[in-house]
Amino acid sequence: MSSSMNVFAKLTTGYDESLSRSGVSGMRMAERLSELSEIGKTTEGGVNRPGFSFEEKQAKQLVMSWMEEAGLAVTVDGAGNVIGRMAGVTEGKAICSGSHVDSVPNGGNFDGPLGVIAALEVAEAWKETGIQPEKPYEVIIFSDEEGSRFGAGLTGSHAMAGHLEEKNPSELKDFDGKSFETVMDEYGSSLEAVWEAKRDMSEIELFVELHIEQGKLLEKNGLSVGAVKGIAGPVWMNVTFEGEAGHAGNTPMDDRRDSLVAASHFIHAIASLPRKFSDTAVATIGKLNVYPNGINVIPQKVELTVDIRDIHKDKRDALVESIIGAAQVSASVHNVEVECQQTLTVDPLLIPEKLLSDMKESIEQFGMEPMELMSGAGHDSMVLGREVPAAMLFVQSKKGISHNPEEWTDLNDCVLAVHVLKAFIEKQMTV
């Protein structure tokens, strides 16, 4: 049995068929999640679909075919963002929903794709029940949300919202040393076309994103869906310590400029910094490269990344400055040089009270407790939310596992979430 069949079989085992109603089909969602799991699949059952890769493009093309089958008019902008549009009874501002299909290395099958498939399932449900929405409706797939290729994510939403200057894409290089411009040429676009992807945001009335929780709160409370009240804004930073290589046996301990010792001092210091600024602040060092990386060579250079997040912008920014200061102290103490470069800065987003209230009402409509949640992860809705009203729904994640082949969300929870999303969008159609 193929991994695709395994995903389909696992999703549909124990599925409550009564949830497939009002045009929403759990089996269709299971089939589509399974088909996407085949693109860039890994031996562990996860996926590798870096931003602007062949695999990401293939996944987009598959969803585009589904969009066309559903009667949506499909366009692709210069940043590779896919937009499937369903005409409304009246023309005007569109209500939009969607997510992404790229992944982290060996990522899961729900982070991103579930939001895309859920948004499309709303359109499918209207088609099957013969309903044309009151306002135009768009399903959007954003490019390179995860940032695993260039170390700076949310590329597609930044381009669409006109925030590309914050990323300095012309300076980015991927994991193979290719420039962003080269990658875009290979992808079938260009650096210039990415800049031209800026959209007139007055065309959008609202963007709502459905996403797996990537945490355990919904599962612990026995809930399928929750309403997000705020999204923490991330700052990504590259930190480079530069010392001096030397022989491990012939260089005395008191005469070394060891970049790894300095980096270790810095890493230890960071562990205690966030709680000094905010109860919700976090900082993570998830990537580290040592050069020349020899067993008997004193490390000359260490490159590492720092991921800093909080829902409070002022406290997060103060934490960033403190972390830069800690890097400088570590470099000084161990007689090495240090450079800190921010590669991503996104403001936190608080969901408007009216939209939060409408989401909670839509959850209650299906007999569930309307739990409010915070998102510690960054999302495309956070970027668009700086320009247009934005909302976000979370779906239960088993054991809170994400960015991992073990990532899982039950089909019952997926379908209930689509019903809530559809009810919420229909509520906005009448406003």
UniProtKB/TrEMBL annotation:
Protein name: Zn-dependent hydrolase
Family according to the record: Belongs to the peptidase M20 family.
Signal sequence region: none
Keyword field: Hydrolase
Annotated source species: Sporosarcina aquimarina
InterPro entries named in the record: Amidase_Cbmase, Bact_exopeptidase_dim_dom, Peptidase_M20, Peptidase_M20_dimer
Keyword Hydrolase: yes
Gene3D superfamilies (alphabetical): 3.30.70.360, Zn peptidases (3.40.630.10)
Record-annotated Peptidase M20 dimerisation domain positions: 233-325
Record's keyword annotation contains Hydrolase: yes
Gene Ontology MF terms: hydrolase activity
SUPFAM superfamilies for the chain: Bacterial exopeptidase dimerisation domain (SSF55031), Zn-dependent exopeptidases (SSF53187)
Classification via PANTHER family: ALLANTOATE AMIDOHYDROLASE, ALLANTOATE DEIMINASE-RELATED
Domain of life: Bacteria
